[in-house]
Amino acid sequence: MKFLLPCLFLFTLSLSAQETPAFTRQDTLRGSITPQRSWWDLTFYDLHLTVNPADSSIAGYNVVRYKTLKPGQELQIDLQPPMVLTRAGQDEVPLTVRREGNAHFIQLKNPAKTGQSGEIRVWFEGKPQVSKRPPWSGGITWAKDDNGLPWVVSTCQGDGASLWWPCKDHAYDEPDSMRMTVTVPEPLRNISNGRQISESSADGWHTSVWAVRNPINNYGVNINIGDYVHFGEKYAGEKGELDCDYYVLRDHLKMARTHFREVPRMLEAFEYWFGPYPFYEDSFKLVDVPYPGMEHQSSVTYGNDYKNGYKGKDVSGTGWGFNFDFIIIHESGHEWFANNITAVDVADLWIQEGFTAYSENLFLDYFYGKKAACEYAIGTRKNILNDRPVIGPYNVNRSGSHDMYSKGANLLHTLRMVVDDDELWRQILRGLNRDFYHRTVTSAQVEAYIAEKSGRQLGPVFDQYLREKNIPELKYYWKNGALHYRWSNCLPTFNMPVRVSLNGQDTWLQASTAWQELAVKDKGRELIPDPNFYVTAQDLDALQSGADVSR
Fold first, then answer.
1. Are 394 and 482 contained in the same domain?
2. Burial class (CB within 10 angstroms; exposed 0-12, middle 13-18, buried 19+) of 365
3. Within-domain flag for 216
4. Which of these, 56, 57, 112, 499, is most buried using a 10 Å CB contact count?
């Protein structure tokens, strides 16, 4: 979903720094790689569903194909009430289903052997959870357009795709490809991920079939049902011709034809910084929806009122945010970070949200220069709470602080300054999308990659900004013609170099938590940290005469 930056304070699941989460068996079943998940590798979903706006119901079946990694017989499929998994079968033989909350444990008719391929079919029906505030609460939205026609959309990041269809609802395992067959009442049309490969109409119902040729995460799968019309264009990208398709409500067509000119600019900037768009085979789509927007893979949803900024506001407060449509840029940035590179565990969701929030800076950098990007990054710090660590607890489907957006972006902005080589930094970003292409990853893998490619010891830096909540403070004082300085308010191992203006001259301080000194030739006592580093500073001389520098 889109835990959108301007709405951090409104996300209902946010925990305060004082709260101690109480995890349940259901948290573990949802958030861990259980024994009933670990023995099989998901290869393909063939999802069939009928969506009926008249009674807000969904019914259908899902064919789940897999390859056996080690012997096993019981597998876990997730589906959340009030949806009901009515039955399961394999080769037309009914299978026993044991339910535990949202988890459904399905017993195969015979034990699976290593290397075997297999499939099961699960049938489901019900009236799925209604989203109270899409996309921040998961579920189906049963809206109507201005002409009174149904407008039905799905949003489920965080809450899980199993809100509305049965699946292996954990991010670590993605199908290699997927097909969706969706039937809706005429004159409505459904728009989903990938490319439409066929459509048909019968008895007042319309069926469309969509095929995704690349791996896809569960929450990135979507349905968008409405009175849609289509237009499109072709973008000459790094991997050749990319189809860009736009599906909007009939009454929005004129606005969209003008406003969606932002898409080629987005693609130009992001292919420069991140490498080729990751899903050429599946095309790029923007789909009109009745909520702000979300990063559904190759089916990015848009509802920003055809205005720049976010709902008419600049999330940085600098004015630079009015130079682009926040939803088009941010949600499309997720095609690289969230859809191409996906966090194995939602505890590491900063990989998706921090890098994508940072993509806003890079879009500005590409078209308006580095100064604009820096000012934007610094401006977004007003959204940071520093309430708890960015990385959350593992294996319980719980993310960390929603600082993962602005703090994650400012960590990356700070690292760019530490690397101090913009071309090397660009190659690191492109390398991430190349070397982790279509993969699920951990934060540890991403951290190690950046450290290795930059040639710097960044482990303590990542630990401080991701696993602690405090911002490092540079303490300093002057004595006997020397500047004395060290890091405080941080881990004992923290040792990040920082650029400062020292008496008007740019100077690098190789700071750690131990006191160090630097001889200063002139008599000035002015030290100003480069504001692009997300740190604070304290002049102990100014704090009080004869300050206790042992602190």
1. no
2. buried
3. no
4. 112
Cα 200 from Cα 460, distance rounded (Å): 57
3-state secondary structure of 374: helix
Please tell me whether residues 500 and 361 are part of one structural domain. no
Task: Say how far apart CA 118 and CA 311 lie, in whole Å.
Answer: 47
Q: Residue type for 72, please?
A: G
User: Does residue 219 fall inside a structural domain?
Assistant: no
Residues 404 and 418 both lie in one domain? yes
User: Which distant-in-sequence residues (6+ apart) come within 8 Å of 544 by Cβ?
Assistant: none
- Three-state SS at 496: coil
Average of pLDDT values for 250-271? 98
Asked whether residue 399 falls in the same domain as residue 478, the answer is no
CA distance 40 to 29: 16
How much is the average pLDDT of 386-411?
98
| Cα–Cα distance for residue pair 293/303, rounded to 1 Å | 5
Nearest Cα residue to 188 out of 212, 214, 206: 206
Alpha-carbon gap, residue 60 to 81, rounded angstroms: 15
Residues 276 and 407 in one domain: yes
> Does residue 84 lie within any of the structural domains?
no
Q: Mean of the pLDDT values across residues 315-320?
A: 98
- The residue from 440, 469, 498 where one domain ends is 469
Omega within 30 of 0 (cis) for the link into 187: yes
- pLDDT tier at 544, thresholds 50, 70, 90: low
Name the pLDDT band for 521 (thresholds 50, 70, 90). confident
Which residue type sits at 427?
Answer: Q
Give the end of a domain, one of 425, 452, 469: 469
Phi/psi for 130 (5° steps) reads -90, 130
pTM: 0.94
Q: What is the 3-state secondary structure (H, E, C) of 173-224?
A: CCCCEEEEEEEEECCCEEECCCEEEEEEEECCEEEEEEEECCCCCHHHCCCE
Residue 512 domain boundaries: 473-543
Domain count, the chain: 2
Q: What CA dihedral angle connects 256, 261, 264 and 270, to 10 degrees? A: -90
Give yes or no for a contact between 471 and 536, defined as CB atoms under 8 angstroms apart.
Answer: yes
User: 331 exposed, middle or buried (CB, 10 Å; 0-12, 13-18, 19+)?
Assistant: buried
Has residue 392 been placed in a domain? yes
